[in-house]
Specification:
Largest sheet: none
Structural class: mainly alpha
Number of domains: 1
Strand content: under 5%
Distance between the termini: 36 Å
Number of strands: 0
Radius of gyration: 19 Å
Length: about 110
């Protein structure tokens, strides 16, 4: 996933939860849905960052041999400047890009 192409804001914004909960009909479900998606995004971002930084890992870890690697610093700065996972997940929810279903409601209907 290319996190730079998301139209999520870089800073925290205020949203009306009652208005946002119209898709699910429940504020609690809305918050849970967004938080689960934010956790997924966070895990994806963390694994991507670890893969990129793994390329620069040295086989001999010695406390005396700490060196700065410009590429590692640039990669870390790139990820620091990205929108937070909660902001990305909230924007996906607002843009109706999240697919979700209520399994409890489906069980009741059966």
């Amino acid at each position: 996933m290319d996190y730079k192409k998301t139209n999520a804001p870089l800073t925290t914004t205020v949203h009306d939860l009652i208005e946002m909960s119209e898709q699910t009909g429940n504020i609690y479900e809305t918050v849970c849905l967004i938080s689960k998606r934010a956790n997924q995004i966070s895990n994806e971002m963390k694994s991507d960052l670890e893969k990129k930084l793994q390329e620069f890992a040295s086989m001999t870890d010695n406390l005396e041999e700490i060196s700065e690697n410009r590429e590692q610093i640039e990669i870390s700065r790139y990820y620091e400047k990205l929108p937070k996972p909660t902001l990305i997940a909230t924007q996906e929810y607002i843009d109706k890009k999240l697919a979700f279903r209520n399994l409890a409601a489906e069980k009741d209907e059966l």
